[in-house]
Write a structure and sequence with these properties.
Elements (H helix, E strand, L loop, with lengths): L4 E3 L2 E3 L33 E8 L9 H8 L3 E8 L2 H14 L6 E5 H10 L18 H6 L10 E13 H6 L6 H7 L4 H13 L6 E3 L2 H10 L18 H15 L11 H9 L2 E7 L2 H9 L7 E5 L7 E8 L7 H11 L2 H11 L2 E2 L8 H4 L11 H9 L11 H18 L3 H16 L1
Parallel strand pairs: 3-4, 3-5, 7-8
Antiparallel strand pairs: 1-2, 5-10, 6-8, 6-9, 6-10, 6-11
């Protein structure tokens, strides 16, 4: 969705065009636009404002212009903030004061739990406007209160896969076919590490099996229904089965030197992709664009995409559209959100910028169902990610998920880069987390 879409340390990618037969194309960030008038003119014309962050893809897909064609009295103006970490504090301030809000506000998935728990009354209940059964079931739950109020309509999701270098696998004596590769780690992330050991035994000089143990850790935890918080809202990260499994596998990857130890999205990580030293990347749907952008033309067709390890898929990222209750045009804004998140529009955004839909109806439309990525050896991403999306577990979200995840990831990076002892790294992580969450 966004060239740089960052929340709690998670940078979202350069957008990529994905359609049948089309190549991955990096898109430029949309600049901030004027917010437009809040009031109807003498002829009943109104301007609806949409505030979001990074790149949601609506302008690129031509959807605002199309909506105006369908509703000549409505003009939609988008106000884009490049960095979500700048956008969100401003949104909180506007919600607290009840002023300055757009008619439609974007929400990053990492913020939904906090808003559901503390600001639900500030938003329109979209369950009264939209059929939430259209979404994959776990997506609707992310923006729902215990009483069933839905504060956000699902836009995109980030189902996981493994992006890998076919040529490096062949040089290491491993299968390169995507189905054969997926079969190698069909048993789970433990099998993924076993494949890493096989790769390391015959690895081309100067290459590493994975970019980052912290990225793998995130994939492991995200594939478990038990992550950082309990259903009662209590932090359980120290006892969480998912966290324990992720930490164990991450420390094993570091100990066996299967990782290059690069924090994802950092300049060294980008440079490693350009150099071609990384064989596999834990790969949410939007990651393909990052890889194709930084790997460049030299490695086009040498990358491929296989299904995620194990029987349970994982999700990394995603957003929502909300309607503030104190907006100027609540009814019209609700109708716009309903239209933007319908299957046809989500498919159009996917075609334009590679944002994978959360609306299940989009999966049967040609622009999604038949989508392939030429850069990744024509990987059938529409098929792969649609299948993954529907087996992702409904995980409990917590208000400080991002803080916990990023703090643990930092300590995994310290093990990789500084040689920090695993026990010390875990103690440092828990100490820092406990200071934040109390």
């Amino acid at each position: 969705m966004r060239i740089t879409r960052t929340v709690a340390g998670r940078s979202r990618r350069t957008a990529v065009m994905v359609t049948t037969g089309l190549s991955a194309t990096a898109l430029l960030l949309t600049g901030c636009s004027d917010s437009g008038s809040d009031e109807a003119d003498a002829n009943g014309n109104i301007t609806l404002t949409v505030a979001d962050f990074g790149q949601f893809g609506y302008k690129e897909a031509g959807l605002f212009a199309k909506y105006h064609e369908l509703h000549p009295n409505i003009t939609v103006k988008e106000n884009v903030t490049a960095d979500e970490k700048v956008y969100y504090p401003k949104l909180l301030q506007q919600l607290n004061t009840g002023s300055g809000l757009a008619d439609v506000q974007g929400i990053e998935v990492g913020r939904t739990k906090e808003l559901v728990d503390t600001k639900a009354d500030a938003f329109v209940d979209l369950a009264k406007v939209i059929d939430t059964d259209q979404w994959v079931n776990w997506k609707a739950l992310q923006a729902s209160t215990d009483e069933g109020k839905v504060i956000g309509a699902g836009t995109d999701i980030g189902p996981m896969s493994i992006c890998y270098r076919r040529d490096l696998f062949e040089q290491a004596g491993l299968p390169a076919d995507r189905e054969a590769v997926a079969a190698k780690f069909a048993g789970g992330w433990e099998d993924y590490l076993k494949l890493g050991e096989a790769y390391k035994a015959k690895a081309p000089k100067g290459t590493f099996f994975m970019d980052s143990a912290s990225a793998m850790y995130n994939g492991v935890v995200s594939s478990d229904s038990e992550q950082y918080y309990s259903k009662d809202g209590e932090p359980i990260y120290k006892e969480s089965a998912g966290v324990k499994a992720g930490w164990k596998l991450a420390t094993e990857a570091v100990d066996k030197k299967l990782t290059q130890g690069l924090a994802q999205f950092s300049p060294p990580w980008q440079a490693a992709l350009r150099k071609g030293s990384i064989a596999t990347v834990a790969c949410p749907a939007w990651m393909a664009a990052q890889i194709s952008t930084y790997s460049g033309d030299e490695f086009k067709g040498k990358w491929d995409i296989a299904r995620t390890p194990g029987e349970t898929a994982a999700n990394w990222g995603g957003s929502f559209l909300s309607v503030p209750a104190k907006g100027k045009h609540v009814k019209e804004a609700g109708e716009l959100v309903k239209w933007l998140t319908a299957p046809e529009q989500q498919a159009a955004v996917f075609k334009a910028v590679g944002v994978f839909p959360s609306n299940k109806g989009a999966y049967e439309l040609p622009d999604v169902k038949n989508a392939k990525l030429p850069y990744f050896n024509n990987a059938p991403i529409g098929e792969i990610y649609a299948e993954e999306a529907q087996v992702i577990p409904a995980a409990v979200l917590g208000p400080k998920d991002g803080v916990i995840k990023d703090t643990i990831s930092t300590q995994i990076n310290n093990m990789e880069q500084r040689g920090t002892d695993p026990d010390k790294a875990w103690d440092d992580a828990t100490e820092a987390i406990d200071k934040v969450i109390g």
